[in-house]
Each structure stands twice: as C-alpha cells, then as structure tokens.
Amino acid sequence: MPSSPESGSFRLDHASLKAWLLELDPESLQALWAEADRVRRTCVGDAVHLRGLIEVSSHCVRHCLYCGLRAPSAGLERYRMEAGEILACAHEAVRLGYGSVVLQGGEDPGLTQAFIADVVRAIKQETPLAVTLSLGERSDADLLAWRRAGADRFLLRFETSDPVLYRRIHPDLPGIPSDRFAQLRRMRDMGYEIGTGVMVGIPGQTWDTLAADLLRFRELDMDMIGIGPFLPSPRTPLGGAGASTFQAPPEQQVPNDELTTLKAVALTRLACPDANIPSTTALATLDRAQGRELALLRGANVVMPNVTPLPFRALYEIYPGKACLTETPATCQGCLENRLRSIGRTMAKGPGGRKSTLCKDSVPCDFHH
Ligand code: SAH
C-alpha cells in the first residue's frame, strides 16, 4: 500500500480530496483531468480492456433501497439464464475480441454453488477468457468453490464507506449482518482479483463520505474500482415519491451528476494509479453522447460492453433507461471501437488483469507502490 497520499503535486488527504470534489474552477479542473489522464497513460497505458457483461439473473433476495431488482419490486418479470445461454454469451464475447466476461446478477440463491461452478469451469475449458463474478454476498464455501472452478475475479462494491448510510440503504438479511469489507478481504485471501466501487450521489451521501470512499479504495489496494452516478429507480424507496427525506442537508449532499462522477474517477486514478477503472454504464446512461469517452479521458481504462441477450437485458432493470439497451453485442462492439478510435485509444487484447499493467516494471513510473 502506498505510504504518502500524494500524486505529483496533488495532495490526496481527506481535506484535499473533499476540496477537489467541490472544485468548480475550470482551470483547476483542467489540471485535474490532465493529471489523471497522464497517470492513466503512464501506469496502465492506452489500451482499453473490454469485459463482456452477462446479466445472468434478475432474481434477488435483498431489499437494497437503491436497486430496481430488490426483492419487493413488484411487476418485474424475473429470469435466470440457463448454463447453455451463459456459455453462448461467453463465446460471443470471444468472437467480439473481448478478453474477459463478467457474470453479474442479483443476489440469487437459485444460482447455486454447483451451477455457477459448472458454468465457470465450462467457460475456462472452452475459451481463453478471464472470468469475473459479481453475484453479491455469498458464503465462503461458494466463493472457494468458484475460485477452484477457475473464477479469476470478483466485483463487490462497498457502495459507501459510511456504516450508518450503508445499513440504511442496504438492509441486512434477517440475522446476517452485511459486511462487504470482510468479504472483500476474504476473497483476496482466496486469490481473487478484487473489485469494488461506489455510487455517486446516493441520497444521504455527503462530501466527507465520498472523500472517505476514495481514501478507502487506496487503503484496500483494490485491483478494480467502479464508480457511477446513482440513478433513481421509481421501483425503489430512493427513487420514489418519498426520496427527498433521505437527502443530506443541501450543502452536504453530493449530487448524482456527471461532473462529480468524473471528479471521483479522476481522483481515484491519482489515488490508485495502476487499478483497472471502468467507464461505467451508469455514466453512459447519464450522458449518452460522450459519457463513455469523458471517463476514459479522465482516468478510466476499462469498458464493460453488454453481451446479454436483448430480451434478458431489458428485464435486468437496476435503474431505468440503461444505455445500450437495444444494441446487439456486435453493434455495441462496432460503436465502442469507433468511440475508442475517436479519442486515440485502442482495444486491448487478452484478459487484462491488474498485474499485467505497465506500472509494475516495464515503464519507469513515479507512482510505484
Ligand atoms: N447483486 C450484485 C450486483 C449488483 S449490480 C451486488 O449487489 O453486488 C452492480 C452495481 O450496480 C451495484 O453494486 C450498485 O453500485 C449499482 N447500482 C445499483 N442500483 C443502482 C442505481 N439505482 N443507480 C446506479 N447504480 C446502481
């Protein structure tokens, strides 16, 4: 873990991070964008890693106040993909030149230990893909079985580092306290590459909380860090009529806007120089014209194009109006290639794990850990 919280002339202690998050001066922000882009280029290079996202199940036992897939969401048609359907998506990802797939879903006990282990084993046997799981909070027995079956990585956002806000927006299952930090540590010990992240602008999230989130990424030495704006879903308490009651006082409440999200992405790049940082779908949803590109120009180096079959994709409604809802995987790939070319970036080949990044040895780098 890095000892001094600085990047070049950028101080990265709590007060400085908070000040940067609040910064509005265009010249200062230009300097932040330029530094984040420089560190990104030096430490992880120009190639953008593409992870094919497979939304394997929309069933969920949780009652998270932010997510449209929450168990109480009425009138939502639920699905769970079959093993053959998931494998077909993985093969499609290979055809499109992607180096890894992410199997994401609600917290769904119907995705049994054996089912996921078999799917992971088959993907690893039949393709060269790295496999990332993003299936919520699961037992150590499940996580170990999946690791043994060949899963390489696990994404579990801690959502917010404020324990009081976390408990409010992410209620425990009866009798089982939720501790995502503990699960992240255990997964690291099991040999997974670990990803986490937060939403920007959750009702009740203050500037101090978000600054603390960014410091937490650094302390945890995360391999992957996803940051997207909170997008209200009318199916949820945080997106419904009473949502304003959850807000922090106006001078403290973080807005769920593009500028704040981009600042959080840029500061995360400075704090975690060699992490893999995606340009998130939530940001692309907020700014369809150039959200993807702006994040890639301000620190991000990963995109997760959706390879879920269209009928399922529409049902995986975490929030409404998701970007790229109607594009086939092939169209999506073409669109991305154009977008990357327009900003002078290339599609990476291969699985794109953190350890293969430039920062470690091949390029002299002043951000060495
Ligand atoms: N069930 C898994 C996967 C959840 S979806 C899990 O809980 O880890 C992945 C991420 O989408 C979540 O971690 C959350 O940060 C984000 N998300 C959920 N609801 C959202 C919303 N309304 N707006 C923006 N992002 C949201």
Describe the model.
The longest helix is centred in the first third of the chain and has 19 residues, at 26-44. Helix 1 crosses helix 8 (207-220), helix 2 packs across helix 9 and helix 8 (207-220) runs parallel beside helix 9 (258-271). Helices cover 39% and strands 13% of the residues. It is α/β, with parallel strands linked by helices and 369 residues long. The chain has a single domain (28-351), classed as TIM Barrel. Strands 3, 4, 5, 6, 7, 8, 9, 10 and 11 form a 9-stranded parallel β-sheet that branches. 46% of the residues are buried. The chain has 13 helices and 11 strands. Strand 3 (47-57), helix 3 and strand 4 form a beta-alpha-beta unit. The model is unreliable at 360-369 (pLDDT under 50). Bound molecules: S-adenosyl-L-homocysteine. S-adenosyl-L-homocysteine binds next to loops.
Give a quick summary of the entry.
The protein has 13 helices and 11 strands. The protein has 369 residues and is of the alpha/beta class.
